[in-house]
Amino acid sequence: MKNTIKVERAIANLTQADLAQKIGVSRQTINAIEANRFVPSTILALKIANLFHKTVNEIFQLEDSD
């Protein structure tokens, strides 16, 4: 699964630490999600999408290999 979190963070002028604090996770969690090493829970995906005023599908996209 790919995501646009890094792009959305840049648009919102947020660091990984800023985003992590706003949604209640560690900076390492954000880093792992951005690097596609960790698939977030539904709740976490919704928190991220809500923060950026996007749908989950606008942030996260399935790939053919998923």
Account of the protein in words:
The chain is mostly helical. The protein has helices spanning 5-12, 16-23, 27-34, 42-51, 56-59; strands spanning 2-3, 60-61. It has one domain (2-61): Orthogonal Bundle (434 Repressor (Amino-terminal Domain)). It is globular and about 30 Å long. The mean pLDDT is 97.
Fold topology:
Layout: E1 2-3, H1 5-12, H2 16-23, H3 27-34, H4 42-51, H5 56-59, E2 60-61
Antiparallel strand pairs: 1-2
Helix pairs in contact: 2-3
Domain HTH cro/C1-type: 5-59
GO molecular function, one term: DNA binding
Protein name: Putative transcriptional regulator
What is the structure about, briefly put?
The chain has helices spanning 5-12, 16-23, 27-34, 42-51, 56-59, and strands at residues 2-3, 60-61.
Q: How many strands appear in the DSSP assignment? A: 2
Structural class: mainly alpha
What's the structural domain tally? 1
The major sheet is characterized as: 2 strands, antiparallel
CATH topology name, in short, is 434 Repressor (Amino-terminal Domain)
**Number of helices, counting only DSSP H or I runs of 4 residues or more:** 5
CATH architecture: Orthogonal Bundle
Could you say which overall geometry the principal axes of the C-alpha atoms support? globular
| Sequence stretches where pLDDT stays below 50 over 5 or more residues | none
**First-residue to last-residue Cα separation:** 6 Å
Helix content bin: 55-70%
Series of H and E elements:
EHHHHHE
CATH class: Mainly Alpha
What do the pLDDT scores average to? 97
Name of the CATH superfamily: lambda repressor-like DNA-binding domains
Radius of gyration, CA atoms, in whole angstroms: 11 Å
Strand order of the largest sheet: 1-2
